[in-house]
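note to self: dont lose this again. the chain is below, predicted strucutre after it. 262 aa total, dont forget to put it in the shared folder this time
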Amino acid sequence: MSDQPVLLKVDGPIARIVFNRPKVLNALSVDAADAFLIACKSVAADKENRVVIIAGEGRAFMAGGDISAFQGPADEVRRHVPTIMEPLHEGLEILAGLPQPVIASLHGAVAGAGMSIALSTDLAIAADNAIFTLAYSKLGTSPDGSSSWTLPRLVGLRKAMEIALLSDVYDAPEALRLGLINRIVPAADLASETEKLARHLADGPTFAYGQAKALLRGSLDNSLHDQMEAEAKAFGACIGTKDFAEGVNAFLAKRQPTFTGK
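---
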C-alpha cells in the first residue's frame, strides 16, 4: 500500500480518487487535502476520463477532519484550518464543474468532512455498513466542504437543519430514504457494484451528461424562464455531438447506441 494520503488510479475512462489514510479512518489532514486537490486537477486535465469515483481505503470512507490539528490557541487554529479547508473546497469546486459524473463509493464511517464530500458528488452508492453523520455541531463548529449548499438541495431546508444542528447518526437505509445516497449494496459487493455503475456511465454520452449536470446544479439559482433558455442552449450544444447522431440513429434502427463521449 502506498503511503500517499490520496491515490489517483486511472483505468481507461474511469478515474478513482482514493483517500488513503486507513489507520486513522482517512481523517482529512493538510497533506491529504493538498493531495486531493492535485488529484482533482489531474482528473480535470485528462480529457480521456469519462467518470470519476471517490472512495476510501480501509474500514471507512472518511471519519472527518484530523481533529488533533484543531487543538490549541484559537489564533493558531484559525491560521491552520484554511490549509485544510481551502484545497478541499477548491477540489470540490473542480469536481462539481466537471462534465464527467462523479460517484461516491461509501462504506463504514461517512462523517464530518467525509459526509460533506459524499454529499458533493453527483451519485452515491453505499455499502450496507455505512454510517452517516454531519458531526460538525458536536465539535462546536459549523459545516464546511460545501455541505451547507448541497444538504438543503438534497433533503430540503427543514431536514437539513435537523441533520446539521443535531448531528444525528443515520444508517444506510435511512440515508437512502432521505435522499443522501442513491443505492445500497452489500459491503462485500461495494467495489464490484461501484465498478458496474461507473462502467455504465463511462459507456454513455459524456457531453450530454455534462450538460445535464450543469443544468441540474444551476437550476435552483435560475428563474423558470432562464432555466428553459439554458436547457435550449444545452440541447443545441448536444446536437453537434457524434453521440447525439448515434443516439438518434440507434433509436430509429431499434438497436443499442454505442457512445464515444464525443
